[in-house]
Amino acid sequence: MNWDLVGIWLGAVLTLMLYSFLYRDNPFYKFAEHLFVGMSAGYWLIYTIFNVLIPNFWNELTGAGDGTPDLLMVIPGIFGLFMLARLVPKIAGLSRLALSMIVGTGAGLGLISTLQTNCLSQVEGTIVPLSGVGTAGFLNNLILVAGVVCGLVYFFFSKAHKGAVGAAANIGITVLMIAFGASFGYTVMARISLLIGQAQFLIFDWLPTFSIIFGAGG
């Protein structure tokens, strides 16, 4: 049996099932959707067990890596069991301890990364020279600085948006709309690229198999 051919046909049939939603919701689409969700959940479960749980917890706890057991790994193991306590209503409250640890740790680590990437790096990227960079560089940096300042003025609500402040706020709105539009356009183009790739799969990979199957059958 040609398993490559079987794989192509399975991919093509499932693709057409998903595209059938463009007509209306139907059982074929629901089947493909549920199959995708189920397989994704199963894949990530196995991936988590063999690539996260075993190397980062079990091997460290038992010393399978360097031969030295790390008994401190008992603590995250207990918290992991606390998460499973939600399955038992009488002790479901124990899961709050694990959740509070996850949320607190995640918030602390996220705060640092957010400040570094979304705040400090953005401020650093806005501090650009307006001299010694040539005409093109001057215009580019001037537009960047003016756009950032006007965008910030739009979110300054302590003063009425009238006069010069209102004009700057309106420019800020324009800059924000351009940024949102570019981001949305990038997202659309990414989805169109996926559509083109799948269309190429159907046309150049799937359709030629008709001649192979029916030609062999004839």
Describe this structure in words.
This protein has a domain at 130-218. By secondary structure, it is mostly helical. The protein has helices at residues 3-19, 27-62, 74-84, 95-126, 134-154, 163-206, 208-217. The protein contains seven helices and no strands.
List the SSEs and their pairings.
Elements: H1 3-19, H2 27-62, H3 74-84, H4 95-126, H5 134-154, H6 163-206, H7 208-217
Taking all Cα atoms into account, the compactness measure Rg is 28 Å
Task: Tell me what portion of residues adopts beta-strand conformation.
Answer: under 5%
Written as H for each helix and E for each strand, in order along the chain, the element string is HHHHHHH
- Shape, please? extended
The helix-and-strand class reads: mainly alpha
Give the % helix: over 70%
What distance separates the N and C termini?
18 Å
Quick overview of this protein structure:
The protein has 218 residues and is mainly α. The chain is 78% helix and 0% strand.
Keywords:
mainly alpha; about 220 residues; extended; about 0% strand
